[in-house]
Amino acid sequence: MKKIIALLVMILFVVSTMPLVFAEDSETNTGNTKTWKERLEQIREKRVQIREINTENREIRAQAREQRGELKGENKQLRVELREELKACKNDSSQCQELRTQMRANVKEGLIISADEMIALMENLKEKIQVLNVSNKDELIAAVDADIAKVQEIKSKLEALPDDANASEVKALAKELRDIWKEIRKQVRIRAVRMLAIGFERVLAKAERLETRLDNVIAKLQEKGYNTTTASAKVEEFKTHIQAARDNYNEAKAKLEELQDNPGLEDAVQAIQEKMKAARQELQLAQQSLKEAVRLIKEQNEGTAILEETT
């Protein structure tokens, strides 16, 4: 569950780093455009190499994510330098026109890198879903695949766009990518908290069965005349923590239903995460109480045998 939350947080910040604006009215009369072209081509080659990394090895994929982040920074630095060159441009000379072309090509490349990053994150989320034991797994995977296809479609349009495309074409695709990611982000948030809820419901169901089993064990020990005061106290402590976890989970679940009805609620995800975090903390305390209760039960002469035979 923690990994899914971490992934969700990472996804939420991807769109904020997308290069969505670019200079179109600044000019310069200097600058080595061949150098800009060469650097941009190197960035493209690296992007393709990173994209072609297809492995189940988590360490290698982590390295690919890191390389993509570095490449994004490299492309951004090139854009900063191009913008500085453009500030001095006061005419429509061939050099100025070429610099404008390189600026648009740079922005286009940045958008493609962002699209690759989005796709990689959603592929990662899909892998998390694939290991879940839920009845609607296929539905969740299909939804993620559909979102990936939407981003891939815009990415293909960007790749097909020539470097000398006009500014309005690049801007239009930048807006299209931003808008589609904004919509996908809402759905990703809902899916992530849903998966948290599914996993937590199962944990609580197991805890409820365990409560019944412990009560039966204590009752049998008492029937045999054993002093169960200390063990009973730990069992009750275990139940208290489980109930606190259940209460926090129920509040998170109510927020989830609220989010499903209105995906635009910006504070809902944070509220759900806070409640789920509190619920997990209570489960950790419950586990400690459970271990102590089991230890105290086993200290009784027949404790281990009764514990093993009781369901």
Verbal overview:
- The protein is mainly alpha-helical and 311 residues long.
- It has 2 domains: 2-165; 197-309.
- The protein has 9 helices and no strands.
- It is elongated and about 100 Å long.
- Mean pLDDT is 80; it is low at 1-33.
Question: How does the SSE layout of this entry go?
Answer:
Layout lengths: L1 H13 L18 H19 L6 H30 L6 H37 L6 H24 L6 H57 L5 H33 L6 H32 L3 H7 L2
Q: Helices and strands: which structural class?
A: mainly alpha
Number of domains: 2
* Outline: elongated
* Strand percent estimate: under 5%
**What helical percentage do the residues reach?**
over 70%
Low-confidence runs = 1-33
Which assembly state applies to the chains in this document? single chain
Average pLDDT = 80
Counted beta strands: 0
End-to-end C-alpha gap:
28 Å
